[in-house]
Design brief:
The complex is a heterodimer of chains A (356) and B (597). Chain A has helices spanning 2-8, 11-37, 42-73, 80-100, 109-136, 145-166, 194-216, 218-228, 230-235, 240-266, 275-288, 293-315, 327-341, and strands at 171-172, 182-184, 191-193, 268-269. With 356 residues, chain A is mainly alpha-helical. Chain A has a two-stranded antiparallel ribbon with strand order 1-4. Chain A is globular, with a radius of gyration of 22 Å. Mean pLDDT of chain A is 85; it is low at 352-356. Chain B is mainly α and 597 residues long. Chain B is built from 23 helices and 6 strands. Chain B has 3 domains: 4-14 and 22-174, no CATH class; 268-550, ABC transporter involved in vitamin B12 uptake, BtuC, CATH 1.10.3470; 554-587. In chain B, strands 1-2 form a two-stranded parallel ribbon. A two-stranded antiparallel ribbon of chain B has the order 3-4. Classes of the chains: A mainly alpha (356), B mainly alpha (597). The interface between A and B is large, with 56 and 59 residues.
């Protein structure tokens, strides 16, 4: 009996579970000590959570791009962070033009913002489709590391192309007067920044539309079929190449929209701005189970909230100075832990062949 | 019977399979598309500012600057592509003279279209203020592109140059093979010699006379060599084995002496050599992980950082909590040990993952290490953002190696040791196990290979080499800061391995020479370094995934499919009538090339 158990439980597994328990203990102790010390008020926690939700819905939008492409091509589109960056970066020129034309003033800011957003989405989509056409399509049948290395190369090429063409400076977006300040969430007495409310509502709307698109429309179903089995889908009369392009279009458009939401929160663009959100969105996609559309949405929200709450909640209690500096490191720690303990994500992967 | 194919202006008559003379329409799309590609690249390089920054350096004094060469290169590519594909379309690789006028037309047209795009850029730039968008679109750039002749005149000259380049290239392509190769080699070597000349002797380019002499000398030598190389090779083969061995030994000793003498060139060349050595060291380590075992490690910089920080913490008199201040040689084993240990600790949980997850986890690990080093949390122990300074220098007996020249030798020894270990392990049982895991994990496991142990050994060996490189890096700079250990270091090392050829040991050396040495020689382009690395990665993966100096096994693996296709296409060509063959030409380089149309 004991021998059979010993054969099934290897030393590495025991070590990993011990590490897991230790981390859990650290988290619990940190949380209790922070809460007991009462360093933050309830309103501050609420603020942090709302900020986390806004940030998380942006991660969710980007994560969808990763998850859709991974579901179909089994490759990490490492350059997706540059797809996210390029949209708002080019749309900056549109935004200044729109601002000069007075379209971001009192009455018609919605119209102006829609124009800017459209530009960002079109640019991001174009970049995504060009990437697919030039860099990824010739490598469909290459050994598995080759497309990933190509994607990494493309990512750096795009980043430094933007640096070379448009300079290394940070460009400040024009601010929208009507979106400044706070308001109450309708029907409640919870204060919220207007931009955050807009971002959360718009992002949720887009996520809902995408969900319906993937689940209900013919193209969405074709996407699912291709991610299930490319050859069988082709035999069923689905144009696989076209569906792959559609996937990149959808991912690009969502990334462009996410870029504008990001700009609404942070008001600036920079050539390196895609890197961290991109990595975190990938974390979110893995968190929810890669290839899984709902998972990416939930993973993004979870990561956003975790990232804004954890440093204060856990690290503060452990007496680590300036916990905010470790915010990015925490996201990566989370990624590493998930991949170690539950590599298929919270909701499970939707991949036809495991370990593909 | 081989059919003869001609071009005509007009659409062809219905194909007549019995006719010996096949008339095809001239494919206008080839030169136009080639011209658009070349012109777009030229415009892109101009807008990036590369043309402007490099125009300060002369290739041939008062005749040709590097900026102009940079515009000429895409132009030459466009015309080459156009002429080559037009010739291929007609299937006249042997007898190009028959369609010579068409080749001239194809070349000239591609050149014209390319230059028209550049002219368009100048026209737009001089009427609209482009600088609001593109920061480098300055009047100086337009001045350079119009050769300082102003808008109408300069543009016409530009177009004329485009057409001229096309015609010259078509003319060169019509020359017989040996002569053509000699001329091309001479032309390529002129800028190479000029750039080396101006790097070593600050600034000035070659004189026109010198350029002509180089062209004649190199071209002549290569022409002579190509006609006499067979006899030379025969003669060497006729020598006795003992003398052949002596000759080889002599060559090795001479090469070794040259390498040993290289740091004597001065402090600055020695500094570059040190960096090349460090990257070769890291590259050899990553080569084991990525090239041999096929594990894509994007957090390689973490082990490099751990090695550097261990050495710093142990040897710097500023860091007192350890209670000891060791010398360099005492601390070196600890640096390597800590990195190896980190490799094992990270390796145990992550090595069960599939390849692309591993890449992201290691990337995350690299960033965690950097962010933790940077934070205030560990500041009392490892200096935080202030870093660690006053790191010990290595000493051999009474001689302290405290300059860049002296440091070259320990780095060189490190490289040799690491290369020796790689070389010996490559063909050992372990090395073969690594490659089996790289090719197919499941099959390898079925063959009785312990996956975790094998992967862990690769990971730990790679980490140990990175730790060694980190220790040398720390002592080279004597001070280290967290921002020296950015993700970009991992990417640079990955580029070195991939450009050189994954799994190939001489490839790593060539890769670090090309990617670390070249940017130092071409200092103007330092800000475009990562742009070029990115482009190099993509182009390498698309066109030559096996690298510059490929490992034999890898080349086979990556080109097996191509060769099958080529064989198939060749068989198809033989069976089909010539019309079909002409419509679907198979380029000699394999079908991979036709993907870029």
């Amino acid at each position: 009996m004991l021998q059979r158990l010993r054969r099934r439980v290897s030393g590495t597994m025991v070590a990993m579970w011990l590490i897991g328990l230790a981390i859990l203990a650290v988290v619990v102790v940190g949380t209790i000590r922070t809460l007991a010390s009462g360093a933050y008020s309830g309103a501050e926690w609420l603020d942090l959570s709302i900020y986390g939700i806004a940030q998380g819905s942006i991660y969710a939008l980007i994560a969808l791009g990763y998850t859709l492409v991974y579901g179909i091509l089994r490759m990490i589109n490492f350059a997706h962070s540059e797809v996210f960056m390029s949209g708002p970066f080019i749309a900056y020129f549109a935004a200044t033009a729109v601002d000069d034309a007075g379209l971001l003033e009192d009455q018609n800011w919605v119209f102006g913002l829609l124009i800017v957003m459209l530009v960002a989405m079109v640019v991001s989509t174009t970049v995504a489709v060009l990437l697919e056409r030039i860099a990824y399509r010739p490598l469909r049948r290459a050994p598995r590391l080759v497309p990933l290395i190509t994607a990494i190369g493309a990512s750096f090429f795009l980043q430094y192309t933007f640096l070379g063409l448009f300079g290394s400076g940070i460009r400040g977006y024009p601010e929208i007067e009507a979106l400044k300040g706070r308001m109450m969430i309708p029907g409640t007495s919870i204060p919220i920044l207007r931009t955050q409310l807009l971002v959360i509502v718009a992002a949720m709307l887009m996520l809902a539309i995408l969900y319906i698109f993937v689940q209900r429309t013919k193209v969405g179903k074709a996407m699912q079929a291709v991610s299930e089995d490319k050859d069988a889908a082709a035999l069923m009369g689905i144009d696989v190449d076209r569906i792959i392009v559609v996937t990149f279009v959808v991912g690009g458009a969502l990334a462009g929209a996410a870029g504008i939401f990001y700009v609404l929160l942070f008001h600036q663009v920079h050539f390196f701005m895609g890197f961290f959100p991109g990595l975190k969105a990938f974390t979110a996609a893995v968190l929810g189970g890669i290839g899984n559309v709902t998972g990416a949405m939930l993973g993004g929200l979870f990561l956003g909230i975790a990232e804004s709450l954890f440093p204060n909640l856990v690290l503060d209690g452990l007496g680590i100075p300036a916990p905010y500096q470790l915010k990015d490191a925490l996201a990566f720690v989370l990624l590493v832990l998930i991949l170690i303990f539950r590599p298929s994500g919270i909701l499970g992967e939707r991949l036809a062949v495991k370990k593909a | 019977m081989q059919k003869r194919i001609r071009f005509s202006w007009a659409a062809p008559s219905p194909p007549d399979l019995a006719a010996t003379d096949q008339v095809l329409p001239f494919a206008w799309s080839i030169p136009v598309l080639s011209g658009v590609i070349g012109g777009s690249i030229a415009v892109f390089l101009s807008l990036l500012g590369m043309v402007e920054v490099s125009s300060g350096r002369d290739i041939i004094s008062d005749v040709l600057s590097m900026g102009q060469v940079l515009v000429l290169l895409p132009l030459i590519y466009a015309t080459y592509r156009s002429v080559n594909q037009t010739a291929l379309l007609a299937c006249v690789d042997q007898d190009k003279k028959r369609i010579a006028p068409w080749l001239f037309l194809a070349g000239a047209l591609a050149g014209l279209v390319s230059c028209a795009l550049l002219a368009l850029l100048v026209l737009i730039g001089t009427t609209v203020d482009l600088q609001a968008f593109f920061v480098r679109a300055s009047p100086t750039l337009y001045d350079l592109l119009t050769l300082g002749m102003g808008v109408p005149a300069g543009l016409l000259v530009l177009l004329a140059i485009g057409a001229l380049v096309g015609i010259l290239l078509a003319a060169v392509s019509l020359l017989p093979g040996q002569l053509r190769r000699s001329i091309v080699l001479g032309m390529v070597l002129i800028p190479v010699v000029a750039i080396l000349h101006s790097t070593l002797f600050s600034g000035s380019g070659l004189s026109l006379l010198a350029a002509v002499i180089i062209l004649l000398l190199v071209g002549g030598a290569s022409y002579l060599w190509s006609s006499s190389q067979d006899t030379v090779k025969e003669r060497v083969a006729d020598l006795s084995p003992a003398r052949q061995r002596n000759m080889r030994l002599g060559a090795w000793v001479a090469a070794g002496l040259i390498v040993l003498a290289l740091p004597l060139l001065g402090a600055y060349p020695a500094d570059i050599l040190d960096m090349i050595g460090l990257y070769a060291l890291m590259g050899l380590g990553l080569n084991i992980v990525v090239g041999f075992a096929g594990l894509l490690d994007l957090g390689y910089v973490a082990f490099f950082a751990l090695g550097a920080y261990t050495l710093g913490v142990l040897t710097s008199p500023e860091i007192l909590w350890t209670g000891v201040t060791l010398t360099f040689w005492q601390a070196l084993p600890f640096a390597v040990g800590v990195s190896t240990l980190a490799g094992i600790i990270l390796g145990v949980p992550v090595l069960g993952m599939r390849g692309d997850y591993l890449a992201i986890v290691t990337l995350g690990f690299g960033e965690i290490i950097r962010l933790v080093f940077l934070s205030d949390w560990l500041k009392p122990y490892i200096g935080g953002s202030n870093g660690i300074t006053r790191i010990a220098k290595p000493a051999i007996g009474p001689i302290v190696l405290n300059n860049q020249q002296g440091l070259f030798y320990p780095i060189l020894v490190g490289c040799l040791v690491v290369a020796f270990i790689s070389l010996r392990s490559k063909n050992s049982r372990l090395g073969r196990a690594w490659m089996a895991v790289r090719e197919d994990e499941d099959v390898a496991q079925a063959m009785g290979i312990d996956l975790v142990r094998t992967k862990l050994l690769a990971f730990a060996t790679g980490a140990a080499f990175a730790g060694l490189a980190g220790a040398f890096f720390a002592t080279k700079l004597t001070s280290i800061y967290p921002h020296s250990f950015h993700l970009l270091v991992s990417i640079n090392v990955l580029c070195v391995v991939i450009v050189g050829g994954m799994g190939s040991i001489p490839g790593v050396v060539v890769g670090s020479l090309a990617l670390v040495g070249l940017p130092e020689v071409l200092r103007e382009f330092s800000e475009y370094r990562l742009l070029m690395y990115g482009a190099a990665l993509v182009l390498m993966m698309l066109n030559r995934p096996e690298g510059l100096l490929p490992e034999a096994r890898r080349r086979l693996e990556l080109h097996e499919a191509d060769e099958e296709l080529e064989d198939y296409a060749a068989a198809e060509l033989e069976t089909l009538p010539a019309t079909a063959a002409a419509a679907n030409p198979v380029p000699p380089g394999g079908l991979t090339e036709s993907g870029d149309q």
